[in-house]
Write a structure and sequence with these properties.
4-stranded antiparallel beta sheet; alpha+beta; 10 strands; 1 helix
Length: 128
């Protein structure tokens, strides 16, 4: 019972803390779901750690199934992640892009578990 309660509290905390981590977002493309996210503290993706700063999240190639997500720095000079993801659904779209964070050991960056582009009910779950 305590474990389930703790998991729920941590999940809620993760979603709420995203509001503090993400200071700006915008959707620029209906097919690529281009989203600009700014993080104020380090976050993790499978095989990568994103330092504080602004990043571009988008579908790598919307013509081939829309499952591959690409994450680059704001200038698009460095690709931090190019990965096959799992599609996940949410009840209704929101006006802002959302990322959800998982748990991490003390001192380690929290992992981004899902990315939901603005205005879309389909999100992308990162596979760790």
């Amino acid at each position: 019972m305590k474990k389930a309660f703790r998991a729920i509290v941590m999940a809620v905390f993760g979603v709420v803390s995203v509001g503090f981590l993400i200071t700006s977002s915008a959707s620029a493309g209906p097919f690529t779901n281009t989203t600009y996210l700014k993080f104020s503290s380090p976050v993790a993706l499978p095989g990568a750690v994103l330092r504080p700063g602004q990043y571009v999240f988008e579908i790598a190639d919307p013509t081939t199934g829309r499952h591959v997500v690409k994450v680059q720095d704001r200038q698009r000079s460095h690709t931090a992640l190019l990965m096959l993801t799992r599609k996940v659904m949410r009840a209704r779209p929101t006006d802002a892009s959302i990322v959800t964070l998982g748990e991490a050991p003390a001192g380690a960056p929290r992992p981004i578990t899902t990315w939901y582009p603005a205005g879309d009910v389909i999100g992308f779950e990162f596979i760790y």
